[in-house]
Specification:
Shape: extended
Largest sheet: 5 strands, antiparallel
Number of strands: 10
Helix content: 55-70%
Structural class: alpha+beta
Amino acid sequence: MGRLLFSHDWQKGLSNGSHGSFHRVSVLSRARIRQVNRYPRRPQRIRQSSPMPCVRLRQILATTSRMNRYVFTPGFAIAALAVLWILTWGAPLAQEGTASDESEVRIAQWNRALDNAEAVVADEDASRTRLERLLEEVRALELEIASLSKAAKPKVAELRELLEALGPPPELGKPPEDVSVSSRRFELEERLALVESRIKQAELHRTRAKQLANKILERLHAELTGFIFERGPSPLSLPVLKSAGPHLMFVLRQLYEAPLEVWMPVVTGKVRRDLPLSAAVLAVLMLALGIPVRRSLLRRFVRDRNVAQPSFGRRLKTAVMIGFARGVVPALVMATPLIWIIADPTPRGIVGDMVVAMLFIIMFVAFGLGLARAALAPYSPSPWRLTTLTDESARALYRRISLLLWLAAVLLFIEYPATRHLEIPGELALFYDFIGNTVFAIILLSLVPGRLWHTLPREKEPESGEQPRGVLRRPALGLPIRLAVALVAIAIPISALIGYTNLSTYLTDNIFLTGAVLGVMVVFHGLARDVTTLILDRETGRAATIRATLGATDSNRRIMQFWLMLVFDLTLFIIGALALMSLWGVSWADMREGIKAVGEGIQIGGLTISAGDIAVAILVFVVMLAITRWFQRVLEDRVFPQTSLDIGVRHSLKTVTGYVGLTLAVFMAIAALGIDLSNLALIAGALSVGIGFGLQSIVNNFVSGLILLAERPIKVGDWVVVGQHQGYVKRINVRATEIQTFQRSSVIIPNSEMVSGALVNWTHKDTYARVDIKVGVAYGSDTEKVRDILLKCAHDHPRANAWPEPFVLFQNFGESSLDFELRFFISQADEVFRIGSDIRFAIDKGFRENGITIPFPQRDLHIQDIDRLADLMGNDAKTDGSTRRQRNNPKDGPPASQKGQDAPT
């Protein structure tokens, strides 16, 4: 409808500023107007249009009469103005009159179309299909009005720029301006006012169409909600059961007797054709063609139990071909006669519709079971399976999927011919829907237990260093999803029992279709993952060519696979989300409005930010960052080698270049978003005031964190030593850095200390490290033999690097030993302690085998008056010996203190 209301003539009328309800204006010097580009609006008084050309002539005459430097006679002035009127008004009036009439027609058509649409919306008997079609027409009308209004807005800017070039009119008391300038300004003001009025008319109709579309959407939503939550009788109530029972038996008896009534007259030769004979012939031909193809594919592509670990390509090819043979081939065989029958205009009887339902059921069940068997491989060895489910889980899941498909098939076989040829009372339909929905809910509940979703255990630890799962088999489907499915399955029969049959059917149908959509998404995700793995891992054939085209190497292929799968998964998610929203009742108009709202952006104050603006800002930031990195590489590889600058100066210049490029990238990205940079200056000023009042330490740590992230003296995973603490960097936050020590304790160090203090990073550039082992041997040992033993210990260790070669230093003649130091390099700095310990064990063993001793420290002790001290020690020894003999003499008996007591044992 919207296309009939618009044409190039209306847009031409907008650009010319014509309207039937407004006064006609003259158009002077159109060629000169087109040479001007844009005109910013100035705050000035816009003069109203003159009602008639004669009024304008009188105004020009009055203006010229005040000009003292020109002297005109009355006759000459009248003749000149007459000629001017003819030249300026003659031809344009005819053209603008036509455009004005056409614009009036367009506006009248808009009004009629919108009035008719409002009448349809006000009609309570309007069908949902009519409302949806009307919504599409109103949306088209709104979009085309908006596009034409937008196309006319540059004309406004052009006229304003022309007025800006003429300048404001002279003030009162000032010398008057030339008549040509005044006339030109007056004409441009009239044209500007008319073009703006035309745009306002268009915006008015656009707003009206938008409001009408919102009303239609509200009514559609209200009708859908009312239908879903409409309450009726319970399907197990006594009146419903009394009416549904006999009618159900009647329907089943009709479906049983109908084929007999058709095919029994074959004996008498009076056959009634319910189906075209060509359909039967075509079905036989398709069977004759499809069965050999299916058998050939199944014989050729077999999941061999003797193959323990089939490759990705073989698994993928086998699954695809088995799915094609078991699902696609039978579906094509059944679909060909089905399409032929449906396309035949001859009316079909109940038997014909039963055959149509049977063909569709076979096609539907064969296709579903074929895809499920190809993906799950329930009766094949687990290495051939595309999923990681266990054998028990795959078989149980396949059985439940089969049960669901056959349940849907039986319900469809009964419902399709019965509803087309028999009168189905409401009570029977109610009871029939309840039985089908309840059986579906029971099968759906059987899919909830976690034992159906167990996955195979991991045989080895992942390369990323995460904790292995061990031998436990965790459910592949998360607990929240299974609980949600269980709640929906329980709600299906309960809602039907309390009278909400439409809600129960709505949940049943959409859950079934949602499962089908999610299953297709999972299959496509698995296929994409296996295909990308196959392409990136294979080094021969066409896969190698694709891999070379993508630039994949052994080091970056996993990263490339991640990003390829991320793009594919995002695309698949968007398509699946749109399909699911359509299933659950979200109209395409609503989805288009949502996409349009995302594209137009959100309004935050006076700023509008859209998804397109964000994408452009990200692109600008990435491009500027890439240019900065490229410029840094040019400086480092080409410019700096041609100079004599110190390496520190080179590094500083490179770092400053990175900071400048990063700053420019940030500001250009902000400008691409449309954010006024002056506002950022105000925010920065306010922050500086806050910093001055006590946020110095916080800002210091924040800035230090930015420096750590920019310069990267440390990164996550580095082994660092800060003061008395050493360990691995676990996290670099805005305020502080977290270090995990070797005792598994976490040390939180402010970023300012990391920047201003001394920092040792063992793995800054790489993981290479040097191990120093000091050892001392006794004087008189063979030093060359000691050196050979130390070097042999280093060379024999598998973790010690052969290059740079290990070497031994004879460091010093110590007080009690000859001091040596063994130095060698290792590839992993975090193994320095373990490798050092191994080398010390080997050195000790080598020294023992070769008779080399490691001496203890020796000291000489000099004591003064040694003779006097010996005499004193001798006297004390004599005195102590006599006392001891006296106490041990048995003749003296026990001491007095022990008399009357038992002898000690």
